[in-house]
Amino acid sequence: MDGITVKNLLNNRPHLFATNPVLSGENGLHRHVKNINVMEVPDVFDWVLKGDLLLTTVYSIRDNPREQELLIPRLRERNIAALGIKTKRYIKKIPQVMLDLSNQLDVPIIELASNISYSQMISEMLEETMSFNTRALVSIQEKIQRITNTISFGGDLLSFLYTVSHALEQDVIFISAKNNSISTNQKAIKITLESIQMNLPLMSAYKMNDATIYYGDGHPFEQSTHIIKIPGKSDSLGYLATWGHESKFTMNVCTILQHTALLLSLQLESDNFIQSTKENQQNQFLYKWFLDEEWDKKDILYEASKLNMTLHNNYIMYFVSQSQLITETNQIILRTQLIQKGILTLFLGKDIAILIPYDYYKKNSKSFFIQLSSLLKNRLKHSNILYGVSTMKEIEEVNVAFIEAKDAVRMGSLLGTSNDIYYYDQLCYYRLLESLSKQDQIKNSLVELIDPLIKYDYKHKSKLIETLFHYFKTNCSIKDTANSLFCHYNSIVYRLDRIQQLLKMDLNNAQVNFQIQAAVRTHYFIMKMRDSK
User: Fold this and answer.
1) Percent residues over pLDDT 90 in the chain
2) Domain extents for the chain?
3) What are phi and psi of 389, to 5 degrees?
4) Measured between alpha carbons, how far is 44 from 177 in angstroms, rounded to an integer?
5) CB half-sphere exposure, 123, CA atoms < 13 A
6) Which CATH number fits domain 279-426: 1.10.287.130, 3.90.76.10, 3.40.50.1110, 3.30.70.270?
7) Can you tell me the distance from the alpha carbon of 227 to that of 257, in angstroms, rounded to the nearest whole number?
8) What is the CATH number of domain 4-127?
9) Whole-angstrom Cα distance, residue 172 to residue 164?
10) What is the CATH number that goes with domain 155-269?
11) Is 279-426 in the same CATH topology as 155-269?
12) What's the pLDDT tens digit per position in 390-431?
C-alpha cells in the first residue's frame, strides 16, 4: 500500500503536532507515511525503512554539527517520509543547515507537539495509517470490481476504457499489436505502437508479479504516463497507457493497472471483443465528426478511409430523442439494418444520431421516416419518441446538422403539439421567438402588451393566456379552441371578449392580432423553456 501522505496525516491528527508544524521541506508533503520509527541513537540509519516517519528529539546529535549536516541527506537516501522533531526539550531551534538541506531535498521537517508522549503519538499515527490503508484497499477493490463488471455485463472496449479512466482519473488508450488504437481522448488516437515501444527504454520500470509497469513524464503523451503490456497466449496483444497532469506513480495505480491488463488480456483473446474494437473506432470517428467544430473535410475523409468507410458529399441528420436507454442488442440490430442503406448511426445514451446520405433521403424521405419510426417503435416497445431533422449539409458541416436536428427536437417539444417529427427549416418562427426571448428589451416590449392578462390570470386563477395561445394555435377557430381546452363554445367566446376588454384591443384587427400573437407565443415559449430547465 502507498500509505497516507504527510499532509493528510497533519490534517487528520493536528493535535499531535505544533500549531504551525511544517518547518521546512514543504514540497515533500506528498510523501507517503507507511510506518512510524524513533531515532535517539546516532546509527539509526541501519534501521530506517522507506516511508518511515522518524520521530526524534535530536538528542544524540545535539552537539555534533557534522552529524546534523549529514542527517537529512542520509535520511533522503533511505527515502523516509518525514522527520518529526520535538523542539522544547533538548534543542530550542532547528539548526539552519538541517532546514536548508530539508528544503533542497524535499524532506519535510515537522515540529511535534511537546506535551504528548511518543507512545501516544506512535499509537495514533499507526491507527491513522492503518485506517487510511483500509479505506484505500476498499476503494481499490471497488474500482477493480467496477472494471470487471463492465466486461461481465457485456460492455464493449470503449466502455471498458472509460471505466478504467474514471477509476484512475486519467485518460486511457489501448494500442493493439496490429497498431489499431482506441482511446478516451480523441487527441491520443495518433499515438502509434512504434512511439510507445521507442519510449519504453526511456521510462522507469516497476515489476509487479509477472507484469512490468513503465512510468515517466512526457513519453509520448507530454504528461505523466503509465504503460503496461497486455500479454497474450504466445505474444503481446498490445499496450495499455494512462496519462494525466495529476498522474503519479503509486502502488494503488499499479494494482489497478495490473488487474486491468489481465482482464483485457482475457477479453482480447475473444474474437468478438477484437471485432468490437473496430466498431468502437467507428463510433469514436462518428462522435468526433458529429460533435467536433474544428475538423476539416480533408481530415474527415482521411480518418474515414482508415476505417474503410465510404462517405457521400451531402447529408441530412436525424436526431432521435426517446425516454429509455437502448440495449446493446437493439443497437446492433438498428445499426445493421441502417448501414445496409449507407446510413450511419451513433448511439448517445437515450438518444440516436442518424446520418443519411442526401441522395437517398431525397428519393425516400417519406417512406424512410415511416420505416424508421416503425423499426424504432418495434425495437424500443414504447411510443414516446421525437425526431428532429436538419437541413442538408456538406461533409465538413455535419456537426452543424447535428446541432440543427437536436435543436429541432428541443424546440419542437416545447411547442406542445401532437407531432413527433420536427424539421429545423420549418421552425424558423420559433427560432426567432427563442432569439427574442434572449433579448430583454424586445422581450419586455412584447410581454408588456399582454401584461394585463398575466396579472388578471394571477389574481383570478384564470386561463386567459392559455386560451389565447390555443386560439392562435388553431388559426383563430373558437370551435377548435374549445375542443383543445375541453370547454364549452360559449366559455371561449366569453373569455375572448374579456381579453379584448382588458387589452382594449380588437383581435379581429390583423395588425393587432399579429402583435398580440407574437407577444403570447414569446411569453408561452419563455415559460416552456423555464419549465424544461
Assistant:
1) 17
2) 4-127, 155-269, 279-426, 431-532
3) -125, 130
4) 50
5) 5
6) 3.30.70.270
7) 9
8) 3.40.1390.20
9) 7
10) 3.30.450.40
11) no
12) 999 999 999 999 999 998 888 877 765 566 888 888 887 677
3-state SS, one letter per residue, for 130-155: HHHHHHHHHHHHHHHHHHHHHHHCCC
Contact 172, 164 (CB under 8 A): yes
d(CA 47, CA 44) in angstroms, rounded, equals 6
Strand-strand pairing, 4-5 and 224-230: unpaired
The domain defined by 431-532 folds into: Arc Repressor Mutant, subunit A (1.10.10)
As a whole number of angstroms, the distance between CA 416 and CA 525 comes to: 10
Q: Residue 21's closest CA among 8, 34, 10?
A: 10
Q: What gap in Å lies between CA 127 and CA 273, rounded to an integer?
A: 45
Q: Does the pTM exceed 0.85?
A: no
Q: DSSP letter string over 421-459? A: EEEGGG-HHHHHHHHHHT-HHHHHHHHHHTHHHHHHHHH
Phi, psi of 90 (to 5 degrees): -105, -25
Q: How far apart are CA 99 and CA 24, in angstroms?
A: 6
Q: Are the C-beta atoms of residues 368 and 361 closer than 8 Å to each other?
A: yes
> Residue 436 is placed in which grid cell?
427574442
